[in-house]
Amino acid sequence: MTDISVILDNPGFCAEEVKSLIGDLMEGCVEVVLADPGYLRVLNRDYRHIDRATDVLSFDLALREEDRPEGTIYVDGRLFPPIEALLERIFHGYLHLKGYSHSNDKDAAIMNREVDSLVADALGNQVEN
């Protein structure tokens, strides 16, 4: 189940639009929160000790490795079309919840391919709707 929340004024996309694009592409219990860069900066500073804004943060709430994915993905929701940029960030965060990493070139390439595939599937959902 995927829930979409919006906690900013003038988001680039509405929650219903994002949810319809994602469809059933994300398994588990995942919440996507469209927020502003200031909110992301506070989260980044408080939880990662990096005092700067970022475009996506994932918080894994799974109790065990096999429970993946479960968590919250915070995304800069001020992005305006193209929707691909927002989807890339959402799926990037989702793959972190699934245990993917981009700590080296090989892992980054795998993660980028998976993100691209999920974005293509989501845009295919758009054509079907």
Describe this structure in words.
The two termini are 19 Å apart. The chain has one domain (2-128): 3-Layer(aba) Sandwich (Collagenase (Catalytic Domain)). The chain has a four-stranded mixed sheet with strand order 1-2-4-3. It contains four helices and four strands. The chain is globular and about 35 Å long. By secondary structure, it is α/β, with parallel strands linked by helices. It has helices at 15-22, 37-48, 83-97, 105-128, and strands at 2-6, 29-35, 56-60, 70-76.
List the total number of helices: 4
Largest sheet: 4 strands, mixed
CATH architecture: 3-Layer(aba) Sandwich
- Name the strands of the widest sheet in spatial order: 1-2-4-3
Number of domains: 1
**E-strand count:** 4
Mass-distribution shape: globular
CATH superfamily: Metalloproteases ("zincins"), catalytic domain
Low-pLDDT runs of 5+ residues are none
Q: What is the helical fraction, as a range of percent?
A: 40-55%
Q: Whole-number radius of gyration?
A: 14 Å
The H-and-E topology, N to C, reads as: EHEHEEHH
CATH topology: Collagenase (Catalytic Domain)
- Look at the structure and give the CATH class: Alpha Beta
* Structural class assignment: alpha/beta
Mean pLDDT: 90
Compute the separation of the termini in Å: 19 Å
Percent range for β-strand residues: 15-25%
